[in-house]
């Protein structure tokens, strides 16, 4: 984190990234002294409610983060920034997104946890828009133009006020990751009785295993039970949805060896934090990849060089296909089918699909609509298989996996195979 003293003294001349969280009520004029170099401006955690009208002077600015401030409107001056691709205003008080505030080069827009009731029609006409995060708002509908957002790949709409399923999204050629839980249109229920309860006082917390966008994970011991993993949610609103929705969806999925399903929910935490208990995987298992970077936007980051054996690739792809087909059979769309949500044993290729935080219960009483939603997730599986194929040195295996990926990545969702078909194809292979 940088300081105002560093900025004003000229010590940051030539910097490409500036991080300021020091109770700002306005953007310091010295920021514009960095116009020839500044690419990432992080103003998260201040008291800002406006940006300067001449933001367009920051001609190299690619990324702006202004979460946890006091904005009520997305500033129109952002539309003048010629290179701006990523804009984040999470946890403000935003109720309005003027069309003029959307920069022409926009790729990623994060407006999670705000007060939005509508969106501008121009949003669906942004030619480069790949990622749109709108969880935790008051949206009752979507712009008609969103049906034309041909570059859109990831969309978060959980915890809004959508009264109908946005069927038009089922025709988007590249949409692969979608979250819709917590809306009136999705199946409701109560998480309070969905899972057995374990009191915090019964747990012995051991090692901290990791952290994600929505929570922290710890190894715990619960009485005489085997060691478990505890996911402690960070708050009441995550990027992908609400903790109660994750608990509810997880409780409704039957056990499967390749799906990480919860075994209990936490109660009695001293800070009233929600939590979910899950089986603990062997220490040798690891994440298949890291989450997307700013540059990759919607694509995971793999080790360099990325290599996987042919046998391991077949096993991993088969396990994931079986897991997703199982979820679909139970009326659940995972919503976040990514390598960073897959834990695997690199020696054998055995894998398990984790994190139901973006999962949505589908309207199985409307098979056509449910099928369209599932077809979106088939594309996510295609992205994963393509990434596996790129790391396999055996050319025959790589070509076979790429053929499967190509089938799943077809731009017409109706032409894609079902996940059950993918599972059977991999079993035969």
Automatic annotation (TrEMBL):
Residues 203-429 form the Protein kinase domain. The keyword ATP-binding applies. Signal peptide: none annotated. Pfam families: Kdo, LRR_8. The keyword ATP-binding applies. PROSITE patterns: PROTEIN_KINASE_ATP, PROTEIN_KINASE_DOM. This is Protein kinase domain-containing protein. It comes from Hydrogenophaga electricum.
């Amino acid at each position: 984190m940088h300081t105002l003293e560093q900025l004003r003294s000229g010590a940051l001349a030539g910097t490409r990234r500036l991080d300021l969280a020091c109770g700002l009520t306005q953007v310091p004029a010295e920021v514009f002294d960095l116009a020839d170099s500044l690419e990432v401006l992080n103003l998260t955690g201040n008291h800002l409610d406006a940006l300067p009208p001449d933001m367009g002077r920051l001609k190299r600015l690619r990324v702006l983060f202004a979460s946890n401030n006091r904005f009520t409107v997305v500033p129109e001056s952002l539309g003048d920034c010629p290179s701006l691709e990523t804009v984040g205003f999470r946890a403000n008080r935003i109720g309005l997104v003027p069309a003029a505030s959307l920069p022409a080069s926009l790729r990623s827009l994060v407006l999670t946890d705000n007060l939005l009731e509508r969106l501008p029609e121009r949003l669906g006409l942004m030619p480069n828009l790949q990622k749109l995060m709108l969880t935790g708002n008051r949206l009752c509908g979507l712009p008609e133009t969103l049906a034309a957002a041909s570059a859109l790949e990831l969309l978060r709409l959980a915890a809004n006020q959508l009264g109908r399923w946005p069927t038009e999204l089922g025709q988007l050629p590249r949409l692969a990751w979608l979250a819709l839980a917590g809306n009136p249109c999705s199946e409701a229920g109560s998480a309070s009785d969905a899972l057995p309860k374990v009191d915090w006082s019964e747990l012995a917390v051991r090692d901290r295993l990791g952290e994600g966008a929505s929570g922290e994970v710890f190894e715990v011991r619960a009485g005489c039970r085997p060691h478990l993993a505890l996911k402690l949610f960070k708050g009441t609103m995550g990027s992908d949805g609400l903790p109660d929705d994750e608990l509810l969806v997880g409780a409704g999925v039957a056990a499967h060896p390749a799906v990480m399903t919860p075994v209990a929910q936490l109660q009695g935490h001293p800070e009233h934090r929600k939590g979910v208990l899950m089986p603990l995987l062997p220490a040798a298992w690891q994440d298949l990849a890291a989450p997307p970077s700013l540059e990759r936007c919607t694509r995971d980051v793999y080790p360099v060089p990325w290599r996987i054996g042919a046998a391991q690739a077949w096993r991993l792809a088969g396990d994931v296909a079986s897991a997703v087909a199982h979820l679909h059979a139970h009326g659940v769309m995972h919503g976040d089918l990514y390598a960073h949500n897959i834990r695997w044993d690199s020696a054998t290729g055995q894998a398990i699909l984790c994190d139901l935080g973006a999962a949505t219960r589908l309207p199985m009483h409307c098979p056509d609509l449910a099928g369209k939603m599932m077809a979106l997730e088939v594309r996510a599986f295609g992205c994963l298989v393509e990434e596996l194929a790129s790391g396999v040195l055996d050319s025959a295996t790589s070509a076979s996996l790429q053929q499967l990926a190509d089938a799943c990545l077809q731009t017409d969702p109706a032409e894609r195979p079902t996940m059950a078909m993918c599972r059977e194809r991999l079993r035969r292979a």
